[in-house]
Structure formats: C-alpha cells, structure tokens
Amino acid sequence: MRRFTSFLSTVVLLVGICTVPAISAETDAVTPVEEFSRQIDQLKNTFTELGKKIEDSAKSIDGMTDVEKARQEIESLRGIVSELLGPVSDNGAVSQLGAKALKHAREKLRTLEQETRFTREEQQYLVNEWRKLVEETERATDDLAAARGEFVQLLRVLQTREDFIEELMQIRRAAEAAKVIRQLANDIRAASDALKSLIRAIKPPGV
Amino acid sequence: MRPIARRIMGVWLILFGVTACIDNAGYVEIKTFPGFNVPLYLDAVKVGVPFKNGSAVVRQQVGRTTLQLERGGQFLPICDFDVRKNRIVTVKIIVSAFDRTPRCELKK
Questions:
Q1: ipTM of the complex as predicted
Q2: What CA–CA distances, in Å, run from B56 to A113, B6, B91?
Q3: A123-144 as b/e: b if 16+ CB within 10 A
C-alpha cells in the first residue's frame, strides 16, 4: 500500500511538473497584451484627470493680469504636461510595454501560422484572433505615439512662450507679455481639445 | 558601520535616488535621417528605442548631457547640451556631403 501511495504521488508530481509549464506558456503568450491593455486603461484615466487640470489652467491664465503669477502657472502646466509625456515617451513604461506586447503577439501569430497540431478551421480561428490582437495592439501603440506628439508640441509651446514672456519682462514690456499670455491661453485650450479627442480615441487591445 | 544602520542607509539612498529620478527629469527629442543606424548613447546609456519616422523622445535626467555615437567599440561625442526640468530639447543629427562625421543641431 505504501509503495502504491509513493508511486501515485510520483505520478501526480510528474503530471504537475509536465503540465505547469504548458499552462504558463499559454498564459505568457497573452499576458503582455493584457498588461498593456490594463496600463492603457489606467493611462486614459490619468490623461483625463490631467487634461481637466490643463483646461482649468488655461481658464486661470486667460484672466491673469499679473505676469509673474502667469509665469508660475505656465511652469506648473509644464509639470503636468511632463507628467503626461513620461509614460508615453519612447523609454517610458507604457511605450516599452507596448513594444513588448506587439513583439509577443507577432511572434505568437507567426508560430500559429506554422502550427500543424490543429485542424485547418481551428488553426484559422486562432490565427484570426491573434491577427486581430496584433492589429489592435499596433493601433494602440500608434495612438500613444500620436498622444506623445501632442504632448511634445504642447510642452514646446509652453516653454518657448514662457521664455518669450521672460525676455519681454526683461525689457519691461508687460503689456506685450500680457498679450502673449492671452494668446497662450487660447493655444492651450486648442491643444486641450485636440488631446481630449485623442484620449477618447485610444482603445486598449482585446477590448 | 553596523549592519542595521547600513541597511537603513541603503533604503534611504534607494528612496532618494528613485525620488530624484522621478522629480528631476526633462526630455530629449532625437531626430535622425533615413537610413541612420549607428548606436546612440546619452552619456553612457544606450538609446535603445525605435526611431519611428527618424525620431524618438526620451525621458532624461536633468543636467549636462552628452550625445555620443558608438563606432568600432568607441564612443564619439557629437554634442553637449543641458536637459532642464520639465522641458524638452531637440537634437537633430545631420551629416554634410563633405564631412562624414555626424553633427548636432540643437533646438531648445
């Protein structure tokens, strides 16, 4: 009896060892895409929250007559845009995860296209599903790249306007500086609208 | 130093380092040209990101930064610039017809 129990436990152990890698291999294949999808969801929330702050900031800059206060507001706006740009910059966490997810999905698709274990219909079904995931992941990474472009542009506008205001103040041209500030408020509002539609359009893969 | 004190100091250093990394960063936009495939480094860190349409935007620690090329296992500095907090600096790599060594054009 003891021998049989020992044999049984060995069999269970062997089955366990043999099946666990197969299960994790299946999980691993889809995990980077799922993780990327989850990160995009979180990022959309952050974008929306910070987008509201940008809008509020544009409103408050518009009514400002104190140039120094306006400059402080622009500086804090740069901080917000920088925060938005961080994860989607090319070495940012979400961008890198996107690249990893895309590589993984493409590899999986290539492997499945050469697969001979399944019937033609089964193989075709799996290939179609992975092809869809690859396309959706590509689209999501393109959307993030577009968002990155918008953030870069907004950051550049903010810093050049801030520098111009600084120069104007050095030659005591407060009225001109106030005009630049009002124009900047309009530019920020336009950028904020463009960002809103960009953020709405971003769709996580597999959803 | 006692092991416990060393451990506490290590934790503080890590926390300080992480905070410094997050708080003091700006961005570098690197623009290259079609067909450019020389490995690039910001200081000693490889810019291991894809250059889509010849350009990439990377987050970088604030301070004086050197853009370098790697040629034959050696670094070739092509320009120095300041990375400032929450600001972006654009570096365009150009090669003239006469001089094959790439040069930088800065846009702050």
A1: 0.78
A2: 33, 40, 10
A3: beebbeebeebbebbeebbebb
Angle, CA of A196, A86 and B61, to the nearest 5°: 150
| Dist CA A123 CA A143 (whole Å) | 30
**Which CATH architecture best describes the domain B25-107?**
Sandwich (2.60)
pTM above 0.95, yes or no: no
Residues A169-198: pLDDT tens digits?
989 888 889 899 989 999 999 888 888 888
Measured from the Cβ of residue A207, the count of other Cβ atoms closer than 10 Å reads 9
pLDDT in tens, B63-100: 999 999 988 888 999 999 999 999 999 999 988 777 77
Test mutation, A57, A78, A89, A95, chain B, max B CBs within 10 A: A89
- Taking contacts as CB-CB distances below 8 angstroms, the residues of chain B near A79 are 86
A69: which strand partners?
none
Residue A155: closest CA among B29, B7, B22, B88: B88
What is the Cα–Cα distance from A148 to A92, expressed in whole angstroms?
11
A82 to B27: CB separation less than 8 angstroms, yes or no: yes
| Interface residues of chain B, partner chain A, Cβ below 8 Å | 25-27, 29, 47-50, 52, 56-59, 85-88
Residues B32 and B95 sit within 8 Å (Cβ to Cβ): no
- Find the helix packing angle between A67-88 and A2-62, rounded to 10°: 150
